[in-house]
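Here is the promised in-class demo. Please do not try to memorize the tokens; focus on the logic of going from shape to residues.
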């Protein structure tokens, strides 16, 4: 649930390892990333990304982080 432009999700008991977070605001609830010319029409967000564009495309290697203990990640959802 999104309240005041924010949402919190808690995952418990995840094993240590390398993770990346990907968020899709699936506005039409079709389970797909709807694209315009080349960019998504719906909001998207990834861990470790403040901006996304043609020269800054999301990749697991850039979005990933090591999970060793309690970790808090803030993800900005971007709309084009």
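The designed amino acids, position by position:
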């Amino acid at each position: 649930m999104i309240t005041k432009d924010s949402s919190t999700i808690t995952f418990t008991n995840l094993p240590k390892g390398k993770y990346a977070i990907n968020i899709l605001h699936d506005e039409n609830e079709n389970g797909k990333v709807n694209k315009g010319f080349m960019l998504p029409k719906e909001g998207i967000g990834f861990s470790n990304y403040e901006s996304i564009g043609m020269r800054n495309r999301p990749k697991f290697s850039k979005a990933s982080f090591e999970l060793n203990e309690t970790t808090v990640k803030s993800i900005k959802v971007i709309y084009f």
